[in-house]
Amino acid sequence: MIRFYAYRNSFPNARLIRSQSGVLEVALHTDGGTLAFNGHTHEQFVDLFHALGSDPDNRVVILTGSGGAFMESISPEGFDFFSPQGYDKIYREGKKVLMNILDIKVPLIAAVNGPVRLHSEYILLADIVLATPSTVFRISRTSNSASYPAMASICSGRK
User: What residues have CB less than 8 Å from 127, skipping those under 6 apart?
Assistant: First the structure.
């Protein structure tokens, strides 16, 4: 069991604000603006989502982005794509992030503030998705993938 005071300042790419009633807002960012995803954030988010799901005082979690997009770009910084050990680390972290999101036992609301060009699964695992009219989701990792306008509501069978 982990408490908010122990982790609230532990994640440089997540601004955490919790109300007295237990509503936790998690804004992903890089230097206060749109998140620039990289190997460091990939590793960081494993622990972030684990902490969110382990805190018994969280009553609702709101996941959002900062700036003009939720998540729009990726940098190779911090990733090791060229060794079996590096690829295995990326694979294991990716699975852990998803499992840790699913282990958040309280309602998870995704408040999508703009384009989601990568890791749209973070959003789609939420119980409720709210999106701006400018939100688009990239649905494939291939270079010829398309982005589609977000629907007004997305039904998720998360729990």
Answer: 107, 108, 109, 156, 158, 159
Q: Can you say whether the dihedral through the CA atoms of 148, 149, 155, 159 is positive or negative?
A: positive
**Structure tokens belonging to residue 47:** 């622990």
Which residue, chain included where needed, has tokens 């770009």?
A: 73
Tell me the residue type at 8.
Answer: R
Per residue in 29-83, pLDDT tens? 999 999 999 999 999 999 999 999 999 999 999 999 999 999 999 999 999 988 9
Give residue 137's identity as a one-letter amino acid code: F
pTM: 0.86
Q: How far apart are the first and last CA of the chain?
A: 21
Q: 42 with 94: CB under 8 angstroms? A: yes
Catalytic residues: 121
Return d(Cα 29, Cα 56) in angstroms, integer: 25
Read off the amino acid at residue 144: N
- Which residue, 90, 19, 10, is CA-closest to 51? 10
- What structural domains and CATH numbers belong to the chain? 4-149 (3.90.226.10)
Neighbour count for residue 65 (Cβ, 10 Å): 24
- In whole angstroms, give the CA distance from residue 102 to residue 122: 10
